[in-house]
Amino acid sequence: MDRFPDHEKYYRFLRRNIILIVVLVSLTPMVILTGIILYRYHETYYRLSVSHLEQVVEKHRSQIDTFLYDKLADIELLGSWFTFDQLSVEPVLENKLQEMQAKFSGVFVDLGVIDESGVQLAYAGPFKLTKANYAQADWFKKAIQSDTFISDVFLGIRGLPHFIVAVKHTWQGRQWLLRATIDFVAFNSLVENIHIGKTGLAFILNSKGELQTHTRFSSPIPNRVVRDILDYESPSEEISVFQRSSESGNDTLYIAAPLKEGEWILVYQQEVDDFFSGLASTRNTAILIFAIACVFIISAAVLISSRMVRRIERVDREKEMMNEQVIEAGKLASLGELAAGIAHEINNPVAIMVEEAGWIEDLLQEEEFKEGENLDEFQRALRQIRTQGSRCKDITHKLLSFARRTDPAKHDVSVNELVTEVVSLSEQRARYANVAMSVNLTDDLPPVSVSPSELQQVLLNLINNALDAMDPAGGKLEITSRPEDGYIVIDVADTGPGIPQANLQRIFDPFYTTKPVGKGTGLGLSICYGIIKKMNGEISVNSAAGIGATFHVKIPLKDGTDANGRDDTTSAR
Amino acid sequence: MDNTKILLVDDEQGFVDTMGKRLAKRNLQVQSALSGEEALEALKKGANPDVVILDVKMPGKDGIQTLRDIKGAYPLVEVIMLTGHATVESAIEGMRLGAYDYLMKPCDMDVLLAKVSEAYAKKKSHEEKIMQAQLKEITSRRV
Question: What is the pTM of this model?
């Protein structure tokens, strides 16, 4: 606290520090945890999703491959069951085509028999392609080389996208091809229908990167992507997965699977954002919760630190006050001792002064002074000295009793016994003052835990005040004791002149007295007030001029005593 | 009351002197001592006072101890204790030890004289009784 002569700054500093520490300590693990969990979740999600997609792609790939090889097998079968002669007859071919179309619901567009020079000897189908010469066609050149052949998609003579499935046979030493055209639309739909999410689609490329199917969105595939796909393509049957950003700037995920023994590639693509859409919602939820939690933590930190600092402030203040009180009490105590010492020391010189004055008074009785002019004055002055000396005595005595600690040891005191004792002490004096004292004590009052000498002092003081007020006209002084609400109440009621309203407020003030000069110091009631307050009791007065005064002294019962005087603590067990 | 022998014991010279003079003016025989030891010395030397007026708080041997010593050696001598307020308890203790009464300083002369007179009366009456008893004892001796 010494760094901050200004308390305000200190508390603000403290508050800020507490908030910082709390926020830091709470948020750091949360941030780390959330980060780690989100990251792992992201990774796992990615892996699982990709793996899922790979499986989907794999399924489609085998579907497509199966489709292709099934068709090939059909043609092969056809070619091996019937001879070149038989199939070269167009009606027969027609018949076969119709059969196949019926069986496979229109996948086969047409059939053709082509001799080794590339001439189509027989044709069955919707186009007029009989006698067409394919000697220059790429596909023919390839097909005549291998036993089976599936071509890329191309427009061909007919001008429509299609692809050919061809099987080579030998008959009578000469090679011939049985060729079928596969309906592109049917084939395309196999691939076109693959879509997942909003942007997922599939297409097939040949080994040169030429598109073999239509894409759903019919936007061209970026060249570099095509290159990448071709690069990534591994000769084995493995599926490759990679990510590129497209021209529109979105990251796109590509999954490529080889088809047709590597001649074609089935490519599945999906925008990464779309792919991770499920993840995004989770991530956003997590971030939202995190943000809310942050808000809570920070407001809690602010609130708690404010409250704590305020409490610290209050405690510090109380501590300061207590320190001051302790210092005050210490000062008071040493003052008290000092006062006691002084008072006692003053008594001796005052006593001597008074004696000397008295001695002069005695001497003035001598004859020589009887006729003196100033005799009366001498005697008056000397009486005055004696009066003032006596007053000094009163003051020092009262001061000494104020400073002197009465034995504060608490005992269990029977109030009625104490009252009786004090009343008997005062009886003599009451008689001289013409006051009739009476008591009215409730029987079986429970004991209180107080210092008996202190309570004695209070009662005696009240009684003496009453007697002083009624001396010598006389009157009645009644003392009653009764229980009330956890207290014992002692009333001291006199029939004296009473206390006017204006004075009532001040009677417990120190040094307040209405007694004539020399008769009282005004400390009595303030001492009583202090004693009773220390006992946690109350002292009060009812009075009006001409009616007398009643002082009420309330003393709390011992803790654990109920109103009937039974010890409560035993019943609690 | 006249010629009552008083022994004043107090460490304050001024007090002792003036009190002595005032008492003497009232026809009392006054001897004084400024300490407990001086008082006992005086008694040993045969002072034989009727009433001792004894201050409670004195340096050296205090009032209570002096009282004990006096009462121990000269039990018939009456002692009146004088006290400043702080030593009232000592005065009460003194009374338990046999002092006749106590007064608070500064004291009123008339009150003091009244007490002295009472103390003297008590001593005299006690001495009377002793004399009576002695007489009786002598006269009832068988010759």
Answer: 0.45
